[in-house]
Amino acid sequence: MTNDLPPADPGALTTYIQSRYHDLHRAQLPDLAALALGVERVHGDVPEVPNGLGALLQRMIGALEVHMKKEELILFPAIRRGATPGLGAPIAIMRADHDDHAADVAKIRLLTDNLTLPDSACRSWTALYEGLATFLADLDAHIRLENDVLFPQFEPANA
Predict the structure, then answer these.
(1) If we measure between CA atoms, which residue out of 110, 100, 120 comes closest to residue 60?
(2) How far apart are CA 147 and CA 112, in angstroms?
């Protein structure tokens, strides 16, 4: 996947993150939430059903949307303008949001027994867990790119 390498320039990197990850999460989560709600409804009597997953994913839609809008409307434009003073506080907020997302990921893994399908899983349940695996990998890559590559360029050296 060398054709999907992120750019080194911080401004271009923010555009890459927005188009590669923000747009992707906006497409992924509603479908996953709908699948989860359907699996919970149809298989509610199966002990391994991930009860509460649909509601968690619906809440994540809102939380991620608020987070991504803060980046798209405030932080990323400031980075594109080259404005480095004063970015420490917004970045700290983004990092805290990332910690919240990590807690949600831990809940997903707990509810799904780390995406372990029961032997009786139907196609929808299988599609849900496959979609979740993709989403979780994308979210992890997104957060690592911001936390480890983008943000350190704009934080004080002793932060």
Answers:
(1) 100
(2) 27
Structure tokens at 155: 């934080």
Q: Which residues fall within 8 angstroms of residue 53, CB to CB, at 6 or more apart?
A: 36, 39, 40, 108, 111, 112
Q: Which residue has the tokens 């957060």?
A: 143
The answer to whether the beta carbons of residues 68 and 143 sit under 8 Å apart is no
* Of the candidates 31, 12, 149, 33, the residue with the CA atom closest to the CA atom of residue 91: 149
- 152: amino acid identity, one letter: P
- Smallest CA-to-CA distance from 137 within 9, 20, 10 is with 20
Mean pLDDT, the chain, as a whole number? Answer: 93
Which helix (H) or strand (E) covers residue 20, if one does? none
Tell me: the pLDDT tens digits for 26-63?
999 999 999 999 999 999 999 999 999 999 999 999 99
| CB count in 10 Å sphere of residue 152 | 12
**Do 112 and 132 contact (CB within 8 A), yes or no?**
yes
| Rounded-to-integer distance, Cα 106 and Cα 130, Å | 17
Q: Residue 107 and residue 93: Cα distance in Å, rounded?
A: 21
Q: What share of the chain is helix, strand, coil (3-state, %, to 5)?
A: 75, 0, 25
- pTM of the predicted protein model: 0.92
